[in-house]
Each structure stands twice: as C-alpha cells, then as structure tokens.
Amino acid sequence: MNDPLELESIADKRKFAGFVILLVLCAAAVRLALAEQYPGFISDQRLFVQWMESVRDLGLGGAFAANGQINYPPLFLWIMSLYGDLLHALGISANAGSVSFKSLLILIDLAAIALVIKLASSVGNYNWRSFTIVLFALNPALMTDSAVWGQVDILHSMLMLLAVIWLPRRPFMSGIIFALAMLTKFQAITVFPVIGIWLLTGLAKERKFRPLLMWAAGFVCPWIATLGYFGAAGSLGKMISQAYTDAVGFYTSATMNAMNIWFYVMGTDPNTPDTEYMAIGITIRNFGFLLLFLAVVGICLYIYRSREESITVLLKASASLCLAFFMLPTEIHERYSIPALVFTLLVLLKDKKWTLPAGLLTLTVLMNLIIVLDDNVNYGTGVWMAIVNLFVLLWMFRSLWTGAGRDPVPAAAAKAGDA
C-alpha cells in the first residue's frame, strides 16, 4: 500500500510543477506586452543593434577594431550576434524599441527565471518557495530594465550570482562563471572581494589550498581563450581599452541618475563634477571610494567572523556589497542597482527577514528607472528614493553584524522550510 504522505508529496510536486509552468508563461506574456507597449531607452537599443550588425559583418575582433563606440565586453556582443544570425535566417530585422530586438532580452530573463526555480528547489516550504519565485519572475523593476528599457543587466547579475553560489562546492565552475560575468560587464568585479575573502578565509582557518587553486584555474580558462582570440584578431588592445579601462572615469558627475548618497543626501548637487574638492581636502570621487573601501572591509570582516551556512553568508555579503557599490561611489548609473536587487531577492531563500529590503529595493529601483525613462529626474521625484536606499543599506549592514556570530541553521530546520 502506498504511503499517504508519499502520495501527498507527489501531488504537491505536480501542483507546484503546474504552477511553475503557468508562472513562466505569464512572465513571458507580461514581458512581451511591455516590450510591445513601451519603446524604452532607444539610444541604448540603437547602439546594441548597431553592434550586433558590426559583429555579424566583421566578427567580434573586427567589430572592436572598426567600431569605437563599443564599450561592453565581448560576451553579450557574441550572444547578440547569434541572435542576429537567427533573425537573419528567418528574414527578420532587429529594430531598436521593438519586440524584434527585445525578444533576446526576454529570452535571457526567462533563462534567469529557470535558474532561480532550480536554486529554490532546496526550499521545502512550497508556499515560501512560490513566493520568492513569483517575486523574482514578476518583479516590476527587473521587467522594466529588460522588456521596457531594453537593457541586459540581468545577464551579468545572474552570472555574478551563480559564481557566488557555486563557490563553496564547485570552485572551478565558480571561477569560470565569474570570468564570464567579467566578460559580460566590468561591474561584475563588485563581488570579487566577497569571493576573495571567502577563499582566503578557508585558507587561513582550515588550510584549504584546493578551493583557491581550483577557482583561479577556472577563472583563467575563459580569459586565455578570449585574449588569444582578440590577440590573433589584432584587436586585443582596443577591446581592453573600450570595454574596461576607458569606462572608468568617463563621466564625472557626482551621480549619473542613481538615487544614492550623492543625490542631495550629502548636500551635493548630482551634476557636481566629482573632481571637485571637499572640505577635508580630498575630491568627491576619492571620498566615495573611501566610503566603498570601508564598506568592503566591514563586509569582509563579516565573512571572516560569521558562522552562518556558507551560501547564506555569501548571498548576504554580495547583496550588501552590490548595494554599497551603488550607493557610495560617484559616477554611478541608475541601472547599477540591478545586481543588488537580484542578490537581495535570492537571500529570501535563506532568510525571510530580508523581505523588507527586497520589497523596498524593488520599489526604488523601479521608480528610479521610470523617472529616467520619463526624463523626470529632479529633487522632488528622486530624493525620497535616495533616503530609502540609504535606509536599506544601513539595515543590511546591521543585519550582517547581528548575524555574524549566529550558528548555522540545523539541517532539519532547513528541510522544514526555515529558509
């Protein structure tokens, strides 16, 4: 005779599978409707389409050599070229502001949702698992960034997330994925201190050399292939300068529409050049870097001291560091908040208390994107977001330190759904 509990479990799994299928279809439908209704940020999309055509005509190496406007690393360009080849085979032209181009971004979104569903499978509580998946799949801020704006911030954000999550158990793959994140967008470097201090902590406390060596080996592999390819194409220097070195310090405003401390919270007009000196004798830019450095030190100390389960520590530290990167330095764009939001949403799989920052960040990131799209960035529309974001950042740091000495969650509790 079948066990009633086993039959109930099978029924729950089938019910959840049906829910997931409907959710993914709904997520795709909503994104397609938004992409059709709103053209988004046309200048970004026009550049992407131009880069896509350049890569299709000249190859990756030739595109960087001939097109000085390319300022993204090569991985997304390569993905766009594959998508462009598919459209060309179907006789379709990709146009900025239309579904023909945004469908690529929607496909990347759906892949991200599938990954989150997989990562959430360890949560035994079906209700909480469903809530976290819905919050990610139908997150209005994430949908606005891709289906409306026409950007691809979810790609490097998910690669950063995967590199962090795989770090404790699959360091070689973590290194590969982090290299791919860096080859997607330079902003991925944000979580490197988290990865580095975790590896060094294992080395210092437990004399574990293998994770560090495996991670480094994985990280090197994609770079060897990339540098070899662009070196052979004669465009290595152009790729490095356009995608990485020239991107730093290109804009000198205290904030580039990011609702952070430099949007009036510090008493600084957002348009103030960050090369100006502050009263204490250093530039605004250097003071922002100093604040970020202090945040990095604090987060590294949390990783070193914390006794929570490894994945929980890494997710919380990464979420806090990504938000600190958005909030504290100068020259930050509004979309640089997306990795912080992604990591915060995934922390919910481990700690329900992070529902508050997840909800508040969803609101502020969404509204930040909307006012930029509407060309309506001013003190009245934005300062409240900067204040809320600062509150969330301080809440995160307080949460890190209050949980630094917490013992790991027992396995039985984790299986029961105490995420």
Automatic annotation (TrEMBL):
It comes from the Bacteria. The chain crosses the membrane at residues 75-92, 104-128, 148-168, 175-200, 212-232, 244-265, 277-304, 311-328, 356-373, 379-397. The keyword Ubl conjugation does not apply. Keywords: Membrane, Transmembrane, Transmembrane helix. The keyword Lipid metabolism does not apply. This is DUF2029 domain-containing protein.
